[in-house]
Specification:
The protein is an alpha+beta fold. Helix content is 19%, strand content 32%.
Length: 236
């Protein structure tokens, strides 16, 4: 688990990748914008290979980055001097400045078959502490067509996998020390990334633990995902 700091943003994790064949599978791009009272900083990947899958990934990611930037730079989100902001300023902290920072991690990369990645975004909006959250993207080929993958794509149709996976995730979170593992809902299972040996489910602060506990993770190996797991998506 990752503990969240008080009144400052997290130092975000560096990006890594599992490259399959490409010497340089992606380059890091970025948006940086600073206006009065607002700072926006975003890093994101641009995949170098030219395949239907990488074109889709680049298009979807760029659209999301632009939407995030537009939301946080709009005048309707311009900071106001709240009571909390004034208290922070008295403590020597910049309570009147809004910040948004995001970095990424590519966890699985095959330019023709499967790309998996996550963003970790952190925002300060004038309160006593910032908030951080995960956004995940999984791209793959299903039925000969490339598309954004959803949880159901990783399991055999018609199999009773949802309760099985939830039980396994709850068990794993309990082993890892999450205080509220029973709070796992089906919607939380949609936030996952693919790694070289399994699926990792990501939980934001407050979902299975307190703010002070930070984010939590539950990784299930391909074997732990059970017989309904669709291994064809990850086979080389």
């Amino acid at each position: 688990m990752t503990a969240l700091p008080m009144a400052v943003l997290l130092v975000l994790t560096p990006h890594v990748t599992i490259a399959q064949g490409d010497v340089k599978p992606f380059v890091t791009k970025g948006f940086f914008r600073e206006t009065e009272g607002i700072l926006f900083r975003m890093r994101y990947p641009r995949f170098q290979a030219v395949t239907p899958l990488t074109r889709l990934a680049n298009r979807v990611i760029l659209r999301w980055v632009r939407r995030e930037r537009a939301e946080y730079m709009t005048t309707t989100h311009r900071p106001k001097r709240s009571k909390g902001s004034q208290e922070l300023e008295q403590e020597g902290l910049s309570g009147s400045r809004w910040t948004y920072e995001a970095d990424y991690e590519v966890t699985y990369y095959h330019p023709d078959r499967l790309i998996s990645m996550r963003f970790e975004s952190c925002a300060e909006t004038g309160g006593h502490h910032g908030n951080c959250w995960f956004t995940v993207f999984n791209f793959g080929r299903v039925g000969g067509k490339v598309r954004v993958l959803v949880f159901e794509d990783f399991f055999k149709e018609g199999s009773p996998y949802e309760q099985f996976i939830r039980d396994a995730v709850v068990r794993k979170l309990g082993e890892e020390g999450a205080p509220w593992p029973e709070n796992v809902k089906q919607k939380h299972l949609r936030r996952f990334i693919v790694t070289s040996d399994g699926l990792e489910f990501l939980f934001n602060a407050y979902e299975v633990g307190s703010y002070a506990e930070g984010s939590h993770y539950a990784k299930l190996t391909f074997d732990e995902l059970g017989p309904a797991f669709n291994r064809m998506l990850v086979l080389e």
